[in-house]
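Predict structure. Chain length: 294.
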Amino acid sequence: MGTVLGDRRAVAILLGPALLVYTLVMLIPMLWSLGYTFQTGNVIGGFRFNGLGNFAKLWDDPQAMSALWFTVKYAVVVSAGQVLLGYLLSLLYVFALRRSSALVRTLVFFPVILPTVAVSLLFQKLFAVAPQNGLANVALGMVGIHPADWFGSGTGAFWVIVAMDLWRSMGFYGVLIYAGLLEIPEEILESARLDGATGWRLVRHLVLPLSMPVLLSAVVFSVNGTLKVFDSVLALTNGGPGSDTTPLTLHMYRTAFSYGDYGYGSTIALLLTVLCLGVTLLIFRFARRDPTRS
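Prediction complete.
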């Protein structure tokens, strides 16, 4: 292996095709999109140089700021929920269910593979208020609370989206973190138990520090996925009511493809890219210290 990696020709042959595909599929479209940020127009009407006009427009666009706020709020709430629920599930698999957890893992993971549209239709029925109450409003009625119009306000629609995406994704993060917990040597856990560390003390002082690398990976996956939320919002609320649940991705899509302004749409995409990159760098910055040290 060392001989192969030391041969520049062999490295070029092995990596060249992958780098070529990556350049054609990823880098060139990214640079092309970056060039659009300095223009206005579309492929039908043509493009005109606009300088920094798109950036000035973005700064003064209240709808873009609203979309940015929704995106950040959604990312914080859903990412925290995904990682927390995933970690609790992984602890359940490892310490409670153990070898009998295969069936539970499969059942909890199942929503991950369901089509987004099907899940959205399910949650529309669950939280419906007309023509008949869904299960959520039926449950509220049973405890004496008046049925709520969940999709009639931005706050209600936001929490329905959060509930749907947590239900869909917690199985994935449970399996991801579970795989990391399996790497903790059983000898270390057994030694800690013999020293009297059980329950929460075992998790707090041993399992949690040793699982920090996989937790970091889960946080990065989750944050970058939630910042780019699109399909679940489009299928469930279409950004409504009004534009209360419109994320940056949906605002970008409508700007570029519905309104035909590729330049401004690319500027919104650049904002989202910078946001994802900045948050990822911050996560690695705060996680740089050795997780095994207390």
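Summary: The two ends are 38 Å apart (CA to CA).
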